[in-house]
Design goal:
The protein is an alpha+beta fold and about 325 residues long. The chain has helices spanning about 15-25, 55-80, 85-110, 115-135, 150-155, 190-195, 200-215, 255-265, 295-300, 305-320; strands at about 10-15, 25-30, 45, 135-145, 160-165, 175-180, 185-190, 230-235, 235-240, 245-250, 275-280, 285-290. The strands form four sheets. A five-stranded mixed beta sheet has the order 1-5-10-11-12, with helices on one face.
Length: about 325
């Protein structure tokens, strides 16, 4: 079933210099999946459904060679060593690295011949390690709703932060993926083999897509309240490809900080709206109401208490 992406998606943030910089500079941070708070997220298990040591060795060899070539090619590119001899050397080093690992496995097979399960488990761990090494993508996590109390507590500094809204309706360049909260976190060795050695490009692509969905787009069902969507790009700060549509301040967000954020974004083009969260009198649900610099609480800023003090002192001198 095709998932329809909402027109608006949201990012809950605590208020800090870094989060303010993201807003003002219109940037987004694509995180390393290893930094996620859920250790099961982007951390699949490998199941062997091939049951052939030689085939598993072929998979491991190919993964090691590919990873070594990728790492060394990137390093060579940075120092502008991209000639034929460099590429040949990289190829040779990849083969040598794979040969060393496989030699160690052969030694294990001789020593633990009566306990092949032990050796297979070790090989699966090596396959997983080398498979995950190839995943260097960054992940931008966005939520479907702005009014989730748990999200405000977990990701927006216990309602002292804000929630940033993005209009993703006019998006022709980036795929937005809804997370699967009921799927499996298992990848089979057959899928990895098909991705690496599939007889057709279609088989290889299909296997790669299935693996990507498990690695990057599957999460434990207990997290379903987040209604998370992900954009996959290079790790680190990236220019925001979506239109900043609104900023919603949490229940405990300070008025002076609201004023600062709104002033900082006052020159931003486009239809940018501001809101503040409010409590419901009838339920545990949260709501939000519009906010502008013309509202009474905002008119008090910026304050100059020195002038107020001077006026008070002048008045005192007049009455004395």
């Amino acid at each position: 079933m095709m998932h329809i992406v909402p027109t608006r998606l949201y990012k809950y943030k605590s208020f800090s210099v870094d989060s303010l910089d993201l807003l003002v500079s219109d940037k987004l941070y694509f995180a390393n999946p290893n930094s996620f708070n859920d250790p099961l997220d982007c951390n699949p298990s490998i199941k062997d459904n091939i049951h052939d040591v030689d085939v598993l060795k072929d998979i491991l060899k190919r993964l090691i060679i590919d990873n070594t070539k990728k790492e060394l090619t990137e390093a060579a590119s940075k120092i502008k060593y991209t000639g034929p001899r460099t590429l040949e050397k990289i190829e040779s080093l990849g083969e040598r690295e794979a040969a060393q690992v496989l030699s160690g496995i052969d030694d294990f097979l001789l020593i633990f011949d009566d306990d092949i399960v032990f050796v297979l488990n070790d090989m699966l761990e090596l396959i997983k390690k080398n498979l995950m090494t190839n995943y260097t993508s960054g992940v931008l996590s966005l939520a479907q709703n702005y009014d989730c109390p748990l999200m405000w507590s977990h990701y927006a500094d216990q309602h002292k932060g804000f929630c940033i809204g993005y209009d993703v309706s006019d998006n022709d360049f980036y795929d937005i993926h809804a997370l699967n909260y009921g799927g499996s976190r298992f990848i089979t060795t057959q899928q990895i083999h098909d991705m690496l050695f599939g007889s057709t490009e279609s088989i290889r692509k299909s296997a790669k897509k299935a693996i990507d969905e498990v690695v990057l787009l599957s999460k434990a069902p207990q997290w379903c309240y987040e209604k998370e969507h992900r954009v996959i790009l290079e790790q680190g700060l990236q220019d925001n490809p979506f239109r900043l549509s609104d900023v919603t301040f949490g229940l405990r967000f300070k008025d002076s900080a609201k004023y600062s954020v709104m002033q900082a974004l006052s020159g931003r083009g486009g239809d940018l709206a501001f809101y503040e969260m409010v409590l419901s009198n009838d339920s545990f649900e949260l709501g939000r109401i519009p906010l502008s610099l013309e509202d009474m609480p905002m008119r008090h800023f910026p304050k100059n208490n020195y002038l107020v003090y001077q006026d008070f002192m002048d008045l005192s001198d007049t009455n004395s």
